[in-house]
Amino acid sequence: MIVCKFGGTSVASAEQIKKVANIVKSNPERKIVAVSAPGKRSSDDIKVTDLLIDLANTVMMKGNVEEKIRAVVNRYRDIADELGLDNLISDIIEQDIRGRVAEDYTNKEIFLDNIKASGEDNNAKLIACYFNAIGMAAKYVSPKDRLILNDIPERTYALPEAYENLSVLKDTEEIIVFPGFFGYTKEGILRTFDRGGSDITGSILASAVGADLYENFTDVDCVFAANPKVVNDPVDIKEISYREMRELSYAGFSVFHDEALMPVYKQGIPVNIKNTNNPTAPGTRILPTRTQSNRPVTGISADSGFSILYVSKYLMNREVGFGRKLLQIIEEENISYEHTPSGLDDISVIMRSSQLTPEIEKRIMHRVKNELCADDVQFSHNFSMIVIVGEGMRHNTGLAARAAAAISGTGANIEMINQGSSEVSLVFGVRSEFENQILKGLYEEFFAAIPTA
Ligand code: ASP
């Protein structure tokens, strides 16, 4: 059995949904289909999820909502009309959205999640309706009472019972159309995953039914070795291991959500990233292990928006518990950290800047100075992390030296180097203004000279 997930641009219009139907029809093993909300139809279009967020905020600010409701409903009506469906499905969708808008918004987060999730929920109903209309036996299946989530809004994940509940879907005769992006807590409260979270739903479904393959349909032929917006015509990645993909998607490879790997990884289910607009292209396969190529590096990615907390104290290395106390201060501010490179007398803690405010920084610096008696404590901002990833890196000597030389060739200074113990990745912290030129320099060093594997 194959579980497929179709992203926003794959289900953005009637024309795209017809392509989805053809893809599903062309292989009877494609039995479970997870769908996103309608995405952008062109580069200047607005995703339905963004329209819904705007709608929810307008309701909560007691603004004029009618026009915003119409904008969302019309997206579905246009699709349904063009697919030749009767008004019933559009009326059901309109009623659903109006019902959600009329709900109580005392708890803003719950209200917002409920409105946001309607994007995928209504699209799944519409697509199931279309499949049936063209003779493909299909049914919409709700995540309610099935995809059970924990109850920590900022860190949503599926509980073991979700996999148990969803496992029965493997015996389905009809094609199941399942909305991505959300589930329910045990108490029946709807919660969404992070943006792009329909990838996670697809992965949970694939794992629950023990699928042979998880196909993730998007709008590119494959994953590239570097960001094509920065590097000219980068090579495509045909095969990549879970570990490599995890490291790359952490730092800016937005093709596949980084949290979506875990459910399939646990079961060793291969993932195939494919293009709805070119379904015969082989795409990129994410596998437990991959055949080695002649390249030590598989991909290079970069992400900005990092801050560094620098702490120094003479004889820090001799002080038992210093690191733990420092990290505890950060934990008590509810901040997660990414790396902690250290020297004898100093340590840096690298974290996403979005978690910080001037007040939080002030509190942390005050506590580190006073409670840990540090000599120097400073925050600096505007850093990027550049990640070089490749299973082949372990077996290659001098790779770090080559990377460092390529970076220095661009005139940029390396602020931090971190090589994880798995040796699958090498991370460089640099000032964000150098990010693009470093990416180009590293790509040139590791890819430009070697023919495609
Ligand atoms: N529609 C949601 C978003 O725009 C989730 C998804 O498409 O995966 O983030």
Automatic annotation (TrEMBL):
<dbReference type="InterPro" id="IPR054352">
    <property type="entry name" value="ACT_Aspartokinase"/>
</dbReference>
<dbReference type="Pfam" id="PF00696">
    <property type="entry name" value="AA_kinase"/>
</dbReference>
<dbReference type="InterPro" id="IPR001341">
    <property type="entry name" value="Asp_kinase"/>
</dbReference>
<dbReference type="InterPro" id="IPR042199">
    <property type="entry name" value="AsparK_Bifunc_asparK/hSer_DH"/>
</dbReference>
<dbReference type="InterPro" id="IPR018042">
    <property type="entry name" value="Aspartate_kinase_CS"/>
</dbReference>
<keyword id="KW-0418">Kinase</keyword>
<feature type="domain" description="ACT">
    <location>
        <begin position="388"/>
        <end position="453"/>
    </location>
</feature>
<keyword id="KW-0457">Lysine biosynthesis</keyword>
<feature type="region of interest" description="Disordered">
    <location>
        <begin position="275"/>
        <end position="294"/>
    </location>
</feature>
<dbReference type="GO" id="GO:0004072">
    <property type="term" value="F:aspartate kinase activity"/>
</dbReference>
<dbReference type="InterPro" id="IPR001048">
    <property type="entry name" value="Asp/Glu/Uridylate_kinase"/>
</dbReference>
<comment type="pathway">
    <text>Amino-acid biosynthesis; L-threonine biosynthesis; L-threonine from L-aspartate: step 1/5.</text>
</comment>
<comment type="pathway">
    <text>Amino-acid biosynthesis; L-lysine biosynthesis via DAP pathway; (S)-tetrahydrodipicolinate from L-aspartate: step 1/4.</text>
</comment>
<dbReference type="InterPro" id="IPR005260">
    <property type="entry name" value="Asp_kin_monofn"/>
</dbReference>
<dbReference type="InterPro" id="IPR002912">
    <property type="entry name" value="ACT_dom"/>
</dbReference>
<keyword id="KW-0067">ATP-binding</keyword>
<comment type="function">
    <text>Catalyzes the phosphorylation of the beta-carboxyl group of aspartic acid with ATP to yield 4-phospho-L-aspartate, which is involved in the branched biosynthetic pathway leading to the biosynthesis of amino acids threonine, isoleucine and methionine.</text>
</comment>
<dbReference type="InterPro" id="IPR036393">
    <property type="entry name" value="AceGlu_kinase-like_sf"/>
</dbReference>
<keyword id="KW-0808">Transferase</keyword>
<keyword id="KW-0028">Amino-acid biosynthesis</keyword>
<dbReference type="Pfam" id="PF22468">
    <property type="entry name" value="ACT_9"/>
</dbReference>
<dbReference type="InterPro" id="IPR045865">
    <property type="entry name" value="ACT-like_dom_sf"/>
</dbReference>
<keyword id="KW-0547">Nucleotide-binding</keyword>
<keyword id="KW-0220">Diaminopimelate biosynthesis</keyword>
<protein>
    <recommendedName>
        <fullName>Aspartokinase</fullName>
        <ecNumber>2.7.2.4</ecNumber>
    </recommendedName>
</protein>
<comment type="similarity">
    <text>Belongs to the aspartokinase family.</text>
</comment>
